[in-house]
Design brief:
Elements lengths: L1 H15 L20 H27 L4 H21 L3 H24 L11 H16 L14 E4 L10 H8 L4 H13 L2 E8 L3 E8 L2 E9 H14 L11 E9 L2 E12 L2 E10 L14 H11 L4 E6 L6 H10 L8 E5 L10 E4 L8 H8 L6 E4 L5 H12 L3 E6 L4 H10 L4 H7 E13 L5 E3 L3 H7 L9 E3 L27 E12 L2 H9 L3 H10 L5 H10 L5 H8 L1
Parallel strand pairs: 8-12, 8-13, 9-10, 9-11, 11-12
Antiparallel strand pairs: 1-5, 2-3, 2-7, 3-4, 5-6, 6-7, 13-16, 14-15
Length: 577
């Protein structure tokens, strides 16, 4: 910025300096008014826009960790020579266009480079950018309908209720809830949850109100509550849509329904439970039209992607993904399926529910009420000549044994299991009742994972890491000069010396984080580990041997994100404990 101010000061001095400094006394003078006001205004506007562009590039280059000196020099040099052309050549408008061409060339070059490091929503001057501009500004101006973002305006969302068979929409129940009290409040709540990228909605009764909480990026966020009567009405609406008993408020019930949101369908899976204060309801949001990620977008390192591809291209074996609920296990498995040629192999999935729709594979949804269980469906699909089988979750001994048997008989089996890390997943399978010799023969690899929140790049704060922090990250203190943390109003209140409360960041809503990315722990089952599982499945010994063969823990894998400024050490420690 200092170099920009110096250059601008020189240009302004040249424009405002007395003519005696640059011309001899005998220089012929005209009658006055020799400055064209339109040209002068065009020159001043161009100068101000150029200054603003240089300032933006300086800030944006630091944000994406690009060389600000190089890009500032390119823009300043192009602008300086452009203004020299304008000042010395006669054809003003031609030289103005030439000057802006000179400035736009390095500016477009910079945008191309920074787009490679930016997320899709932060990229500029591409198809997604212009489409977003059109949707946000132009389309809203030409439409005559009320704006969807205004309170009270129509929402592009419509509830759908399945029939008893789960296949056909039950219009009678939909019409019934549309006439019920609380219908608009339910629509507004669901729309708000979808807009804020919530994965779960919690309706929790208290003595006087119905508390509403969203789980956004894995963190519970309080929303404006309903009064008790309105909250009970909203709960009844969802129970009617799911075709479950609205008079039963003590026994646990579950069901599902759908919603048409603009051009896509979002699935909702609900579960109710009786409490001392009333009936609680939890909804899981499943966007079946969500863009399917590939291995390159999950957050894995290049070396880990290579190892995973080697495992999933084998003709047989069991590949397990472990982690807590909501850690992205299903997304990882579908990213693996995305790497397989779906049109040359017979791929069958058994899930509850089906979270992603993928062409070229057979997807079966579990329905315990109708007698469709994981074990039963898995046993039947083995007679359908599958090459690849995806089991949504291994919950019991029967399912685990059938999956291991399938992996030993020439099938490639993907599945998930609830475990803290990749090594304890082996102990979890044995606890379910799978014989150690069967598990050792079937298992190919175990991938443990978590999701960490990404720092908002617009409000994150740079900090000098302490020696203790660098020790936890297991990095060389001389290699890391600074890391980043989330914006904290309590710590950063000195930036608001006027006494006003800090304004929440528009990008992250004051949370300090936007979206999540995975950290991983890949355990490849080598011959030595396989023999150890068969002979003596001791968790400590397996972990020691795995570490010797290159196993990196979740904390070690996530440390690269802290060093790169993608997340904070506090977030990494919270997730990887």
């Amino acid at each position: 910025m200092r170099s920009q101010l110096i250059l601008v000061s020189i240009i302004l001095f040249v424009l405002a300096a007395p003519s005696e400094l640059f011309a001899a006394p005998a220089f012929p003078r005209g009658p006055g008014f020799y400055f064209d006001p339109y040209k002068l205004i065009g020159l001043i506007i161009s100068l101000l826009v150029w200054i603003k562009l240089c300032a933006w590039v300086d800030l944006d280059a630091h944000r994406f960790r690009l060389d600000a000196v190089v890009w500032n020099g390119a823009l300043l040099g192009a602008g300086f020579f452009g203004f020299l052309f304008i000042w010395n050549l006669a054809a003003f408008w031609v030289t103005l266009i030439l000057a802006w061409t000179m400035v736009c060339f390095p500016a477009y070059w910079y945008v191309t480079v920074r787009n490679r490091r930016a997320d899709e929503e932060d990229q500029l001057l591409n198809e997604v950018f212009f489409k977003r501009i059109y949707e946000e500004y132009i389309s809203k101006r030409i439409t005559k309908e009320p704006k969807e973002g205004k309170a009270g305006g129509p929402r592009p969302i419509r509830f759908l209720s399945r029939s008893t068979t789960g296949e056909v929409e039950d219009k009678e129940r939909v019409e019934r809830v549309q006439q019920s009290k609380g219908y608009k409040a339910a629509l507004e709540m669901v729309w708000n949850a979808i807009e804020r990228r919530a994965t779960d909605i919690h309706l929790e009764p208290t003595a006087s109100e119905m508390a509403v909480r969203f789980r956004i990026d894995g963190i519970m966020t309080n929303i404006k509550p309903f009064n008790r009567a309105m909250g009970d009405a909203v709960v009844n609406i969802f129970k009617v849509l799911c075709n479950i008993d609205i008079t039963e408020r003590r026994k646990a019930q579950d069901g599902s329904f759908s919603a048409q949101v603009e051009a896509r369908v979002v699935e909702f899976r609900i579960a109710t439970a009786g409490s001392v204060a009333g009936e609680k309801l939890v909804m899981r949001l499943l966007d079946s039209s969500a863009q399917l990620a590939d291995l390159g977008h999950l957050g894995m390192t290049e070396s880990m992607q290579t190892q995973v591809r080697d495992v999933i291209t084998r003709p047989h074996g069991l590949f397990l993904v472990c982690g807590p609920t909501g850690s992205g296990k299903s997304t990882t498995l579908y990213a693996c399926l995305h790497e397989i040629d779906r049109f040359q192999q017979n791929i069958i999935t058994v899930e509850n529910p089906v979270e992603y729709r993928l062409d070229g594979i057979t997807q079966i949804e579990i329905n315990p009420k109708a007698g469709k269980t994981f074990a039963g469906e898995l046993r039947s699909i083995l007679r359908q000549d599958p090459d690849v089988i995806l089991v949504g979750e291994i919950r019991d001994k029967e399912t685990a044994e059938i999956a291991c048997q399938a992996a030993q008989t020439g099938h490639l089996v993907f599945s998930t299991v609830h475990a803290n890390d990749s090594v304890t997943a082996i102990a979890r399978m044995i606890d379910l009742g799978v014989p150690a010799f069967m598990l050792g023969s079937a298992l190919s690899a175990v991938l443990g994972q978590r999701l960490v929140r990404l720092l908002c790049k617009k409000c994150r704060k740079r900090m000098k890491p302490s020696a203790e922090t660098l020790k936890k990250l297991k990095v060389d203190p001389d290699a890391v000069r600074y890391i980043y943390r989330a914006f904290d109003p309590a710590e950063d209140e000195e930036e608001h010396e006027d006494g006003d409360d800090p304004v929440a960041c528009e990008s992250c809503g004051g949370q300090g984080y936007v979206k999540r990315i995975g950290i991983f722990e890949l355990l490849i089952i080598t011959d030595r580990i396989r023999e150890l599982i068969k002979e003596n499945p001791n968790v400590a010994e397996i972990r020691r041997l795995a570490t010797e063969t290159g196993l990196r823990s979740l904390l070690e894998d996530g440390s690269r994100l802290v060093i790169d400024g993608e997340t904070s050490i506090q977030e990494l420690l919270r997730v990887s404990k």
